[in-house]
Design a protein that fits this description.
The protein has 449 residues and is α+β, with helices and mostly antiparallel strands. The chain contains 18 helices and twelve strands. Helix content is 49%, strand content 9%. It starts with 14 loop residues before the first helix and ends with a strand.
Length: 449
């Protein structure tokens, strides 16, 4: 247990009110705490029985993440909020050697020459989704980006691009993610007492039945792949099914299911949110759009995906989007394994610490005028992995980072090059809790002009 006799810079609000605020308005909760305690504070948020140490000072975050498995550990059991969705056998919930071996199995699917192969898929699916829009028709950017991102994941991860199973999975995954679209409905993930199956029409009962249908489809796909092995398939499911660990063991059906759901949920929801925010800022700030279009015009072959991926200003726009609106607010929890000093404070074993990505990305000493969207800051300076960390860090760093960055750049380049969009509502859009992440409140209203 955390030593609560002398907690570090504790928030004074009673625990229950802290928990409610953390679920309802996490941005205000963090910003209010940081005004009083800029680098480190103790918080009592839902999902944990003890106080947690929130840290957003770069050197302290570096100390925590570079000592994973030594002074600090990253136990999967503390990621239990995700367990109802991704099970017990995904990269989110495994730990120690099992976690390390799983990452080694999964990582190759997201790197190297495979990215180039995915470029045409991403381009085609983006055009397909945008071509369905009618001129002057208002649409929600978040919905269109989620449609694109989910189809990309289904093709790249599952190798599904047509047929009843593909359509059914797409429909069910969309419905499941929409269950946690607001702070109110997200509360079901945070408060186990609300997770009661009261029938088809109860929120948790609805979730369980949708999850059951998704599981059925995934296990059917796995069974068919095992019965009809095709060595020429390049999707991630095929790679995972043929991969073995150091002892020559492959993944079980349950392990495959959990990993696929982790990739589906984390892989399309988060990327869709980032792309939506990027469209918001690009169309809110005309000079940003102008610079992007000029840069895209320097690429003579618009199917040269790696050249597009490497464009510096496009990269800066994506980075600034993830800086000002990090989808993940926190790193995965770490636990102190031996007495350690952090920012001059002594932490005892069993203390739980979290890197606060949101507050880190809004530090004025790192990012002057932090509330302003300024892509140039990423052209003027190289930030360390502990100053800019939209994909987390250490042993729990996002395995799909390369695919996410590739996808968002190709989608944005395709949209800007072939479609003329504009915001239909000029009012500022604020971030709002969506499940365990932050997303644009209202979904960002746009229209095709």
């Amino acid at each position: 247990m955390l030593n609560l006799i002398n907690p570090i810079n504790p928030i004074k609000t009673i625990k229950f009110l802290q928990q409610i605020q953390w679920v309802a308005d996490p941005v205000s909760y963090m910003e209010t705490a940081a005004k009083k305690y800029p680098d480190i504070f103790s918080a009592q948020i839902v999902g944990f029985d003890v106080s947690l140490i929130f840290v957003n000072q770069p050197q302290a975050i570096q100390q925590i993440l570079t000592n994973d498995r030594k002074q600090f550990s990253a136990p999967g059991e503390l990621n239990g909020i995700l367990r109802p969705i991704v099970g017990d056998s995904s990269v989110f919930t495994l730990e120690s050697d099992r976690h390390r071996k799983r990452r080694q199995l999964v990582m190759p699917a997201f790197h190297g020459s495979r990215m180039q192969n995915y470029g045409q898929i991403i381009f085609d699916l983006t055009n397909e989704a945008l071509s369905r829009l009618k001129p002057q028709q208002t649409f929600l950017a978040r919905d269109v980006m989620q449609d694109i991102s989910l189809q990309i994941i289904l093709q790249v991860v599952f190798g599904l691009n047509a047929g009843d199973r593909c359509r059914e999975l797409q429909s069910l995954m969309t419905k499941m993610t929409e269950l946690f679209v607001s702070p109110l409905t997200s509360a079901f993930l945070f408060f186990p007492s609300l997770q009661k199956d009261l029938g088809d029409w109860s929120p948790w009962g609805n979730f369980l039945r949708q999850r059951e249908q998704i599981d059925k489809l995934i296990y059917m796909e796995i069974a068919e792949r095992r019965a009809n092995h095709d060595p020429d398939r390049t999707d991630i499911l095929s790679m995972l099914m043929s991969a073995t660990d150091e002892e020559g063991k492959g993944m079980t059906d349950v392990e495959l299911r959990d990993e696929l759901l982790a990739l589906l949920i984390a892989g399309h929801e988060t990327t869709a949110t980032v792309m939506s925010w990027a469209l918001y800022w690009i169309h809110r700030l005309p000079e940003v759009k102008k610079k992007l279009l000029a840069e895209l015009n320097t690429v003579s072959d618009r199917t040269d995906w790696m050249s597009i991926f490497k464009l510096p200003y496009l990269t800066a726009v994506c980075n600034e989007t993830m800086r000002i609106h990090p989808v993940a607010m926190l790193t995965f929890p770490r636990v102190v394994e031996e007495p350690v000093e952090l920012l001059g404070y002594k932490l005892e074993p069993k203390t739980i610490v979290l890197g606060c990505i949101y507050l880190l990305h809004h530090r004025e000493d790192l990012y002057p005028n932090a509330t302003q969207f300024q892509p140039e800051r990423f052209l003027d300076r190289q930030f360390s992995a502990y100053e800019f960390m939209p994909f987390g860090g250490g042993v729990r760093r996002c395995v799909g980072e390369a695919l996410a960055q590739f996808e968002m750049k190709i989608v944005l380049a395709t949209v800007l090059s072939h479609y003329n969009l504009e915001l239909s509502d000029r009012r500022p859009v604020k971030p709002q809790r969506r499940g365990v992440t932050l997303a644009p409140a209202g979904g960002i209203k746009m229209l095709l002009s």
